[in-house]
Amino acid sequence: MASHTLDDNKALVVFSGGQDSTTCLFYAKEKFEEVELVTFQYGQRHDTEIEVAKKIADEQGLKHHILDMSLLSQLTPNALTQHNLEIEQTDDGVPNTFVPARNLLFLSFAGALAYQIKARHIITGVCETDFSGYPDCRDDFVKSMNVTLNLSMDKNFVIHTPLMWLDKKETWALSDQLGVLDYVRNQTLTCYNGIIADGCGECPACKLRARGLNAYLEEKGVK
Ligand SMILES: [Zn+2]
Fold this sequence. Notes:
Its cofactor is Zn(2+). This protein is an alpha/beta fold.
């Protein structure tokens, strides 16, 4: 049987074209010789999200895998996949943008793809600090998922979560350290209304992003 050894210098980044995963992309480029990207397509509120991801992958000269996860919209009538729903917080503190088990599914597919392309390292921008109410973005879950992937394929994958304990201000600081603050600011899409860069300024994602950016720029003394 041919050997199927994972390449220790190769990383797969779970990539959406947003601020966090784009910062992870540059983090990966700094740490690993070979980087590939995976984007999950599942009826996002805006097709712009996929276009933005493609453009960034292209500009960075990285191989980009786009996986069709449209079956997610069969499981959940919520604001991320149903374009006519308003985004709001539910009684138990979980936003109605929550797609049950989304990150569980994404990391499973990322693991299967990492196996195929022989990448030992999987990088995801999930974060526990700006806790969004998504249980499968927490550190304990990701650690458990890492064990599960390894057992399921009999491999030693390493899931990296460089943003896990950073707040939005610190994520901007990381992109600045990586020399890409302006690129991340101007080329990424975080806004729920599908407007790139600084976005609409009104939605929760824009407000969180702007608060972190302003705090960082203030600290740096440029604002
Ligand atoms: Zn917005």
